């Protein structure tokens, strides 16, 4: 946990094993990544804090064709594979996003929207590993970048192959522990070739269904068949407030509510080119009411057992963790600043955003390191959550950090000279980042936590400089 908070140690762990061809290149990658992590979201020049030698070294690294973006990413993936070893059950969340640019480099990148759009860039498919028990982020295990041609007929291969390709590389990097991994995908992955590939390799998955396919067991289609099944049980979930758009594209506010869902399950068989494809299905349907205009409806295809309500609810719980990769995309593109980079050569830009991908993961982990009690409570582990909250914050913060933090928000009733609780530290850092808890969730966004953490680090730097000046006999 401490390595997440220490940018030098974090960078060393991620890039020490990179095959960069020269130990000096490895040292440079580690140094540059640490500076970029310390100043997440800032330009490379700003991350070097005015040190001209560092700035020149950073840009030499970014322009060095002997350091491929693929090798940078492979080094980070290797570290993630090492971190994943102890976990009993791992979620591999797959999804695709676009990196969009409008400056000079855009002319050499691929189509994102229409051919007349000024924005061009990469499509990137990522796989993020989570601990299934707490849903905390382990790390990034795979990324694939590609440029979409203006004419779809010029594409080298179908983009739908990205799902199976992601599984292939996870398989190579994770080895024997792949049996503990459950791939989690949205409706775009509802492709028979992908499902078939996963089952041929005895790999686990939860995929949201898009197609109501015909079944071997009945004349009904999949969705029709599920409607006719008996209810296994029901449960209630909290739907958070969210700004969204209606069918006409106008902004609307989705109010927070409690949704009651009924659960049905079925074991079905798809027919694929003369072969049969057995799969388990969990169907969660929100009960309709006058206030619910768009009820939740999930049809989840899975290899996991569905014999009991507890097993079905676990599958739903797994799928609800899928949103975490959307959080990663935001942290990578906005928080770490991947879409604000202005390199003019595609490979230079790709080297920079490859480092920033792991910095985006670190932004998520910084929040999760101090919000673990929230995830434990979601699992019903109340005593464990209280125990974590009561821990001293020096398990994650250095002495200078928590002492400076106390200057901004001294804990009520705290008379001990030792470090306050982890709960206090989380709330104090979030407040520094502007968190006011207007939604009464008690959980700050990663942006608020990062802003608070960044502000704290600025004050800590000043505090340490002042201590050095006093030690040297200078007056303040």
Strand and helix layout:
Layout: H1 2-5, H2 7-15, H3 23-38, H4 44-47, H5 52-63, H6 69-84, E1 90-101, E2 110-111, E3 120-131, E4 137-146, H7 162-174, E5 181-185, H8 192-200, E6 204-208, H9 222-227, E7 233-239, E8 242-245, E9 251-254, E10 257-272, E11 275-286, E12 297-302, H10 309-320, H11 323-335, H12 346-378, H13 382-390, H14 399-408, H15 422-432, H16 446-471
Parallel strand pairs: 1-5, 5-6
Antiparallel strand pairs: 1-3, 2-3, 3-4, 6-12, 7-10, 8-9, 10-11, 11-12
Helix pairs in contact: 2-3, 3-5, 6-12, 11-12, 12-13, 12-16, 14-15, 14-16, 15-16
Structural features:
two-stranded antiparallel ribbon; TN5-like_N_sf; alpha+beta; 476 residues; ten-stranded mixed beta sheet; Transposase Inhibitor Protein From Tn5, Chain A, domain 1; Transferase Inhibitor Protein From Tn5, Chain A, domain2; single chain
Description:
It is globular, with a radius of gyration of 24 Å. The strands form 2 sheets. Strands 1, 2, 3, 4, 5, 6, 7, 10, 11 and 12 form a 10-stranded mixed beta sheet that branches. Among the domains are: 70-233 and 262-283 and 290-331, Transposase Inhibitor Protein From Tn5, Chain A, domain 1 (Alpha-Beta Complex); 391-471, Orthogonal Bundle (Transferase Inhibitor Protein From Tn5, Chain A, domain2). α2 crosses α3 (23-38), α3 crosses α5 and α15 packs across α16 (446-471). It contains 16 helices and 12 strands. β5, α8 (192-200) and β6 form a beta-alpha-beta unit. The protein has 476 residues and is an alpha+beta fold. This is IS4 family transposase. Residues 218-358 form the Transposase IS4-like domain. GO terms for molecular function: DNA binding; transposase activity.
């Amino acid at each position: 946990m401490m390595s997440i908070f220490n940018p030098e140690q974090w960078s060393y762990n991620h890039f020490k094993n990179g095959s960069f061809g020269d130990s000096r290149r490895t040292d440079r990658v580690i140094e540059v990544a640490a500076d970029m992590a310390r100043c997440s979201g800032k330009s490379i020049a700003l991350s070097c804090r005015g040190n001209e030698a560092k700035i020149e070294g950073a840009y030499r690294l970014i322009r060095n064709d002997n350091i491929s973006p693929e090798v940078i990413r492979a080094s980070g993936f290797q570290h993630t594979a090492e971190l994943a070893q102890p976990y009993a059950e791992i979620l591999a969340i797959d999804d695709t996003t676009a990196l969009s640019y409008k400056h000079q480099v855009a002319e050499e990148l691929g189509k994102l929207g229409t051919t007349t759009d000024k924005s061009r860039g990469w499509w990137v498919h990522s796989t993020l590993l989570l601990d299934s028990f707490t849903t905390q982020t382990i790390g990034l295990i795979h990324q694939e970048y590609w440029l979409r041609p203006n004419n779809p007929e010029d594409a080298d291969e179908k983009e739908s192959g990205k799902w199976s390709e992601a599984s292939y590389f996870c398989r190579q990097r994770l080895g024997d522990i792949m049996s503990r991994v459950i791939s989690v995908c949205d409706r775009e992955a509802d492709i028979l070739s992908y499902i078939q590939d996963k089952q041929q390799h005895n790999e686990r998955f939860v995929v949201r269904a898009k197609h109501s396919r015909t079944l071997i067991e009945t004349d009904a289609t999949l969705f029709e068949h599920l409607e006719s099944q008996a209810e296994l049980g029901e449960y209630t979930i909290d739907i958070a407030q969210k700004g969204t758009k209606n069918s006409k594209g106008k902004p609307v506010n989705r109010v927070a509510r409690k949704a009651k869902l009924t659960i049905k399950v079925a074991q079905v068989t798809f027919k694929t080119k003369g072969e049969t494809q057995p799969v388990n299905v969990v169907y969660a349907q929100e009960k309709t009411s006058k206030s619910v205009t768009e009820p939740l409806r999930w049809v989840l295809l899975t290899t996991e057992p569905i014999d009991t309500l507890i097993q079905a609810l676990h599958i739903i719980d797994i799928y609800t963790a899928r949103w975490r990769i959307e959080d990663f995309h935001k942290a990578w593109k906005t928080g770490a600043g991947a879409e604000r980079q202005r390199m003019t050569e595609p490979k230079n830009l790709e080297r920079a955003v490859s480092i920033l991908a792991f910095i985006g993961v670190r932004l998520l982990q910084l929040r999760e390191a101090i919000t673990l009690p929230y995830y434990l409570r979601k699992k019903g582990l109340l005593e464990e959550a209280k125990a974590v909250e009561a821990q001293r914050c020096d398990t994650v913060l250095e002495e200078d950090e928590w002492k400076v933090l106390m200057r901004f928000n001294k804990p009520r009733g705290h008379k001990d000279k030792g470090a306050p609780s982890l709960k206090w530290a989380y709330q104090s850092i979030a407040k520094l980042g502007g968190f006011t808890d207007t939604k009464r969730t008690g959980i700050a966004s990663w942006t608020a936590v990062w802003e608070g953490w960044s502000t704290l680090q600025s004050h800590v730097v000043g505090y340490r400089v002042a201590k050095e000046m006093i030690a040297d006999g200078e007056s303040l």
